[in-house]
């Protein structure tokens, strides 16, 4: 894969989530995840943009939720086509003029020219582009002494609610589902300047003791920006039984391609999961057989030991993986929003919580475990 000049991305600064029920979002982020509520859209922005927004933050994770106010705004247009979902990914960049010039020269599709906003002696420059990620756009920002999170944002004098007691630190990666991902991979390489990082493909049929007449699979390719470490995992269904694949089911539930989940790093996943479960957060289930086979699987992949007690991991249903070295990672997946709220309009998006203990990959064993867990949830809800 040829190398393309990087865009100067520093990090994923925020994700912008379009929702139908802002009070439900506030309860989830503040009361369940212990995020702080930073502020809201000013009345003028709410009226002009025809949407009301709240911003939540824990560590370097900023999540903006917007709900339509009437018709015609961006949130309304998105939700007219989709259930609740990620409408925008926001990137902080080092030099926005250079980023714009590179994207424009590579036949990226800017929605506008660079916009400049000033306040209190500081400035913010920003622009957005369309993407192959369904109706999700990418926004790029550079700021110098500009305090508001975005133009028209009113910060509270003191953040309200949570104190990040679960130790969230930042976004680890984003995962998107496509019915065919090749166009998105080419776009990420030649327009965004990302490089191939990791890939896997498998089918549930390949481990069955007898030949199945059903099942599903996926192909996944992770692309990354080596400068910032920003990673995007990209999935498509894998034959046979294409229509039964949970990737295709996501596409049907979401009504198009889009962001399936966002992974958030924590410093202590055991403490975080214990605390989250105590607050009523629900996770995708992991069968006991996973932990029965875990010691042998870890030896097979070269992870001689883990610091954590396997019985504790079993009790909390935390997954473990690694690849050909002694380093490993721990992760768990929340139920998707539709399952959490018992509301299909809440959508198939979900969060992952991850703690990396030296391993920077995307363990194939846990990919399969996630895949099968989603399928169990979909079957229990009659969606497969």
Entry summary:
The chain has two domains: 9-161, 2,3-Dihydroxybiphenyl 1,2-Dioxygenase, domain 1, CATH 3.10.180; 168-380, 2,3-Dihydroxybiphenyl 1,2-Dioxygenase, domain 1, CATH 3.10.180.10. It is 27% helix and 35% strand.
Structure description:
This protein has 384 residues and is of the alpha+beta class. It folds into 2 domains: 9-161, 2,3-Dihydroxybiphenyl 1,2-Dioxygenase, domain 1 (Roll), CATH 3.10.180.10; 168-380, Roll (2,3-Dihydroxybiphenyl 1,2-Dioxygenase, domain 1). The protein has helices at 22-32, 43-49, 74-81, 96-105, 182-190, 246-254, 269-278, 288-292, 294-300, 310-316, 337-341, 364-380, and strands at 9-18, 36-41, 51-58, 61-68, 85-93, 115-119, 122-129, 137-144, 153-161, 168-177, 195-203, 217-225, 230-237, 258-266, 319-321, 328-333, 350-357.
């Amino acid at each position: 894969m040829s190398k393309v000049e990087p865009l100067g991305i520093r990090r994923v600064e925020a994700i912008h989530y379009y929702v139908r029920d802002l009070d439900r979002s506030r309860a989830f982020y503040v009361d369940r995840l212990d995020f702080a509520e930073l502020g809201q859209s000013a009345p003028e922005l709410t009226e002009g943009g025809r949407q009301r927004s709240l911003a939540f933050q824990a560590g370097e994770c900023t999540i903006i939720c917007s709900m339509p106010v009437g018709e015609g705004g961006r949130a309304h247009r998105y939700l007219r086509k989709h259930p609740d979902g990620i409408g925008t990914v926001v990137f902080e960049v080092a030099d926005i003029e250079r980023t714009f010039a590179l994207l424009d020269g590579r036949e990226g599709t800017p929605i506008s020219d660079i916009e400049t906003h000033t306040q209190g002696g500081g400035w913010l420059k920003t622009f957005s582009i369309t993407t192959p990620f369904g109706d999700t756009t990418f926004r790029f920002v550079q700021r110098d002494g500009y305090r508001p999170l975005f133009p028209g944002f009113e910060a509270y004098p003191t953040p309200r609610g949570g104190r990040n007691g679960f130790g969230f630190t930042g976004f680890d990666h984003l995962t998107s589902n496509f019915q065919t991902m090749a166009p998105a991979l080419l776009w990420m390489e030649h327009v965004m300047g990302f490089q191939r990082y990791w890939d896997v493909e498998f089918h549930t049929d390949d481990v069955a003791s007898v030949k199945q007449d059903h099942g599903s699979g996926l192909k996944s390719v992770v692309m990354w920006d080596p400068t910032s470490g920003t990673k995007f995992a990209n999935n498509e269904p894998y034959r046979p039984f294409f229509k039964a694949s949970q990737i295709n089911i996501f596409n049907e539930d979401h009504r198009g391609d889009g962001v399936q989940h966002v992974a958030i790093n924590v410093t202590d996943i055991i403490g975080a999961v214990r605390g989250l479960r105590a607050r009523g957060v629900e996770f995708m289930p992991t069968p006991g057989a996973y932990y029965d086979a875990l010691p042998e699987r870890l030896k097979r992949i070269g992870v001689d030991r883990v610091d954590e007690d396997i019985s504790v991991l079993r009790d909390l249903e935390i997954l473990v993986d690694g690849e050909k070295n002694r380093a490993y990672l721990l992760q768990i997946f929340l139920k998707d929003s539709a399952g959490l709220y018992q509301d299909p309009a809440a959508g198939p998006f979900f969060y992952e919580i991850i703690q990396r203990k030296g391993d920077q990959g995307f363990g194939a064993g846990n990919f399969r475990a996630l895949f099968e867990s989603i399928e169990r949830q979909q079957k229990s809800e009659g969606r497969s």
